[in-house]
TrEMBL record:
Cited Pfam families: Ribosomal_S20p
GO biological process: translation
Region (Disordered): 1-30
Family: Belongs to the bacterial ribosomal protein bS20 family.
Record-given protein name: Unannotated protein
Species this protein is from: freshwater metagenome
Keyword 4Fe-4S recorded: no
Length: 84
């Protein structure tokens, strides 16, 4: 454990942000999985929209890299277009 007060604060702050990032990534995976599961149904458009929105939000907040976001959206849309 650190002895410096500011470093102790950073450890707590980093733990909070790591927890937030983990939750965001988990939700991201869930949204994409739901969007893929509903391919061919009428609820799919809304699920895809929400998945893309979450991917964009994660990229904007720096949780995932912007190129990773673009790749995930591209792959998702490819699945949607093949099924659609």
């Amino acid at each position: 454990m650190a002895n410096i007060k500011s470093q102790k604060k950073r450890i707590l702050t980093n733990a909070k942000s790591a927890e937030r990032n983990k939750a965001m990534k988990s939700e991201l995976k869930t949204r994409v999985k739901t969007a893929r599961a509903t391919l061919g149904t009428e609820a799919n458009a809304e699920d895809v929209r929400l998945a893309v929105k979450r991917i964009d939000m994660a990229a904007a907040k720096g949780i995932i890299h912007k190129n990773t976001a673009a790749r995930r959206k591209s792959r998702l849309m490819k699945h949607v277009n093949v099924a659609g």
